[in-house]
Amino acid sequence: MTQSTVRTAIFPVAGMGTRFLPATKAVPKELLPVVDTPLIQFAIDEARAAGVERFVFVTHPSKAAIERHVRNDANLSRQLRHKGKNAIARKLEEAALDSVRHDVVFTMQDEALGLGHAVKCAAPHVLPGAVAVILPDDLILGRGAIGEMIGAYQTAGVGHMVATMEVDADKVSSYGVLDPVSRNGQIVTARGMVEKPAPDAAPSRQAVVGRYILDGSIFTDLHAIAPGTGGEYQLTDAIARGADRVGLAGFAFSGRRFDCGSKEGMLAATLFRAREDAAFADVLAEYAQPVEDPAERVVAA
């Protein structure tokens, strides 16, 4: 594998996951499974396939389970192999990031001060050059989105690149939206971006989702911006601040995106993956039928 032009990936995983309470009271949102694979694992595998060298996890002291999942557990592997469960042990070892083969950093975001603040917390730990930011609860299945973006970034001629997808007009107010200038294949050159615009004021329907490649100057701009609503520092504000100076483009990735920060998106992702596995065909067929009303069954009896 040739060396990637983007050597560091930042994973902001400090959030509380309030939309999934009570499930996330004890289990971090990033460890919730889509069938049998935790959300964080998809993100790790995507970055690893893209040739990323350093993995920086911005987490919270209450979420120690994430580090336990991410790092190799030699003791658990030994126990599994002792019981003859070699295949499971091997699967866990292949999924993990270990200190011999991988450059892994965990750093803390003690206060919930926004995505921009989380990225800023990673600043002391990144390697020189542009950095990737991957939001694990934005699950993108198919070709690795961050790998596609890194490939395009080398020739795009911009400092900041954000993953984008076209959404319906009535959905733009839920996203940051590009203000586009031109399009060349999957690359949408933009003069800036607008955070959660009203549908009649949106400059486009190119919505920004959870993959970013950011010029190293992003950390200077993050220190320069003021907090917004709720005292949070918005990553989009820092990107917009540097857009004129380093350039900005969207990238229309080829995979399928699921908003796994919502219950609806998590269910959709689970059903999508289940449909790809013949082992779940009978279960899916059973629950595809209309739900019978118990009251009607009593009356019929």
TrEMBL record:
EC number(s) recorded for this UniProt protein: 2.7.7.9
Source organism, top-level taxon: Bacteria
The reaction(s) this protein catalyses: alpha-D-glucose 1-phosphate + UTP + H(+) = UDP-alpha-D-glucose + diphosphate
Keywords: Nucleotidyltransferase, Transferase
Keyword Chloroplast: no
SUPFAM superfamilies: Nucleotide-diphospho-sugar transferases
One MF annotation (Gene Ontology) recorded for this entry: UTP:glucose-1-phosphate uridylyltransferase activity
Gene3D superfamilies per UniProt: Spore Coat Polysaccharide Biosynthesis Protein SpsA, Chain A
Catalytic EC class: transferase
Domain spans labelled Nucleotidyl transferase: 14-271
Any one GO biological process: UDP-alpha-D-glucose metabolic process
One matching Pfam family: NTP_transferase
Keyword match Metal-binding: no
Entry protein name: UTP--glucose-1-phosphate uridylyltransferase
Organism: Palleronia abyssalis
